[in-house]
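Quick one: structure tokens for this chain, please?
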Amino acid sequence: MLTERAGHGAAMATQKGADYDAVFTLGGDGTAVEVIGALAGTGTPVGILPGGTGNLIARTLGIPVTLRKAVDVLVHGDRVQIDLGELADGRRFAFSAGVGIDVRMIEGAPTRLKRRLGVLAYVLSATRAVLRRQDFRVRATVDGVVHERLASAVMVVNFGAVLNDLITLGPGIRSDDGMLDLCVFSPRTLLDSFRVLWRLFRKDFRSDVCLLYAPGRHVRVETFPPRTAQADGEIIGMTPLDITVAPLAALLLVPRHD
């Protein structure tokens, strides 16, 4: 079944999902998250096939980017339950929601460029966003505890690593612990930016004035002034964001781990 508009994948999954042993999505992260959210709590597992540009969720789960291989490993794979993040309007995300550099990366990689360069379009866009750092004031409240600082990127994450564990976003982040993790990145100079990135590559999370981590079940993110926000690569509107964890809400098919 082919989607025809935003939200159509969720509608089809809601109507037809119970008729099948599993539902597979072939598309980008936005389509995958629509279906995952629609089938959350139903017991119908979702297999994510890489058909978009970044395929962030598929890569994070270790799913091959070659379609034939992806089908094979998912059909013969494991079932796992993961948490989801839930926005105030009911929309859900699997990987992260954020403000700052990640949004500028998405906005700086238009469809035409993604068609030509694939995931490299995101790499180029992210590099420009880092070099042209735009700081903003953020107030993040995690389970009632308030954190305020100047930041260039704020993320509420469910998975701790991206691109097959190439970059780890923070310490001890798990997708099945009933928690979400606030990650605030506050480099003061370009040198700080590259140092922070190098530490993420090396999984070095010693105390650093440029890094803030806080796990919790409810996170509110306010920015001054309001800024555009994203969730799993889709622009979702403006801050503030109110996010609550939905523990073990999603059932996914993943490669078997022997």
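Residues 181 and 215 are 4 Å apart (CA to CA).
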